[in-house]
Amino acid sequence: MATQDPVLYAVCDGEKARFLRFDGQQLRTFQRFGAHSGETDAIGEVGSIKQPRTDPHAQVKERFAREIAQEINQALQQDSALEGLVLSAPPHVLHDIREHLSKAVAKKLIKSESKDLTNTPDHDLMSHFDRPATGWPQMTP
Fold first, then answer.
1. What is the DSSP letter of 37?
2. 7-134, what's its fold?
3. Distance CA 141, CA 137 (A)
4. pLDDT value of position 24
5. Would you call 90 exposed, middle or buried from its count of C-beta atoms within 10 A (0-12, 13-18, 19+)?
6. Which pTM does this prediction carry?
7. Pairing between β-strand 109-113 and β-strand 7-12 as defined by DSSP bridges
8. How many of the other CB atoms lie within 10 Å of CB of 62?
């Protein structure tokens, strides 16, 4: 049976996210989120009359980034086996997520990648991450 390394990989954009783990052979998705799903319904507080000049689409993305940061915080707090975090998102989303990470989780951030990889299949993701940067051995092809 393959062993998992102690890193949570989070691949996000403004409306979708997924959490992955490396199982010894490749990264595998174990949890998905969507801005319009029941688990993280970022549409909930959009369209306030108090902010008439705010773009509702931008509000959804900002709220979703906060919710994903909360999910990351929760995942790393609940699973003591997770020692690190690798985060990939477009620059503006990456900034919003990092702003809402707890201090303890922010210390576990090994690497952040300013790329939108949400539509990249699991088996193609490994080539986008620098394994030596995580501190765990390089995967042999």
1. S
2. Nucleotidyltransferase; domain 5 (3.30.420)
3. 12
4. 82
5. middle
6. 0.81
7. unpaired
8. 19
Question: What is the spatial distance between Cα 109 and Cα 95, in angstroms, rounded to a whole number?
Answer: 13
Q: What are the residue boundaries of the structural domains of the chain, listed by start?
A: 7-134
- All residue ranges of the chain with pLDDT < 70 are 1-4, 38-54, 130-141
Main-chain dihedrals φ then ψ at residue 20, nearest 5 degrees:
-130, 160
pLDDT digits (tens, 9 = 90+) for 88-122: 999 999 999 999 999 999 999 999 999 999 999 99
The number of C-alpha atoms within 13 Å of 52 and in the hemisphere containing its C-beta is 0
**Cα(34)–Cα(4) distance, rounded to whole angstroms?**
25
Q: From CA 56, how far away is CA 64, in angstroms rounded?
A: 12
